[in-house]
C-alpha cells in the first residue's frame, strides 16, 4: 500500500502521477479520481507518506524514502500525524483500524459501508491538535462517496479552511457522486489506468499466469485482476466459465462470494449480448462465449441480474441463490431467436430468484 523499506513504490505506474503532484500541488485538498482497481488508495497513502517523510524534507518533490522513522510508522499503520478515514468494512479489509474498532468477532454488528458523522467529527478534532512529528498532518479519505450526507456536510468547513500544515486527500471512482460543495473545495487529479503491457508485467511479476486473460476480465484494472487471482480464479477457469454456466454446472461458481458471482454473470451477459449484436466480447476470450443466444432473452436476463444486484447485501440463502442464478443464466444462454424462448419461459418450476423488489 505504501513505499516499503527497500524504497520501491507499491505500484510502478504510480511514479509519474506521484512526481507530478509532489512537484506542483500547493493546495490543501486534493481529489483523486479514477477507476476502482487502478490503485487510488495506494496512491493517496504514498502521497501522504511523501508529505510526512523526514528524509525527503530537504528535497521538495521527492518520493518517500521508505526507511526513515516516519515511513516506518506509516508502514506499521501507526503514524500519529496520519488519519485514514474509510468505511469500517474497508478498514478491516486493509487492516487500518481505528482505536474504537472492536476486534473481529467481538462486534456483532455488520461492518458499515459508510463513513459516518462521528468518525468525521473525530478527525476534525484531531486536525486542530499540534503535529506530533512536525511535518504537518494528512487525512486520507477513501472513498469520498462513502460519506453519508451528514458526514459530508460536517467536513465542508475543514475542507475549505483546514489548520495550517494540514492536507486532505480524497479518492472517488466518480466525482459526480460527491456533493458539489465537496468537489469545489478540492483540486482534482485523474489517476489513469496503466498501459496494458505495464499492468500485465506487474501481474506476471506477482505470479499471475496468463495475466492478459484476468486483466481483460477486470476491464484493464490490475488490482481487480490481482484480487481475482488471490481469490483462486485462474485464467483457464475464467476461460471455461461461459461454457460451464451454459451447461448449468454449479461447480464452476462453487465457493465464490455472491458479489463475485453476480459480477461474473453480468460480464458474461454483456459479452453474450455483444455477440448477439455482431460485436466482440470484452471480458472473456474470443471463442469462449456461446453464440446464437436470443438478444431478447439475454436482455431479460440482464434486467434480472440488475434486480438481484441491487439487493446483494440481502441475507440470501447463498446456495439456493446460486442455483437460481445458474438456472436463469443457462436458460438465457441456450435460448435462441428461432425458438422464441426466454429465461422466464424456460425456467424450471420452483426455480426463482425471488427477493426484495
3D structure, described in words:
This protein has 357 residues and is of the alpha/beta class. The protein has two domains: 12-190, 3-Layer(aba) Sandwich (Rossmann fold), CATH 3.40.50; 234-346, no CATH class. Helices cover 44% and strands 7% of the residues. It contains 15 helices and five strands. The chain has a five-stranded parallel sheet, sandwiched between helices. Helix 5 packs parallel to helix 6 (149-160). The two termini are 39 Å apart. The relative contact order is 0.10.
Distance between the termini: 39 Å
Please trace the helix and strand order, writing H or E for each element: HEHHEHHEHEHEHHHHHHHH
Question: What's the helix count?
Answer: 15
Alpha carbon gyration radius = 23 Å
Enter the CATH topology name of the largest domain.
Answer: Rossmann fold
Largest sheet composition: 5 strands, parallel
Q: Average pLDDT across residues?
A: 89
Oligomer: single chain
CATH architecture label of the largest domain: 3-Layer(aba) Sandwich
What is the name of the CATH superfamily of the largest domain? P-loop containing nucleotide triphosphate hydrolases
Whole-number total of structural domains: 2
Q: Estimate the global geometry from the Cα principal axes.
A: globular
Structural class: alpha/beta
What is the strand tally? 5
Q: Mind telling me the CATH class of the largest domain?
A: Alpha Beta
How much of the residues is beta strand, in percent?
Answer: 5-15%
Residue ranges: pLDDT <50 for 5 or more in a row?
Answer: 340-357
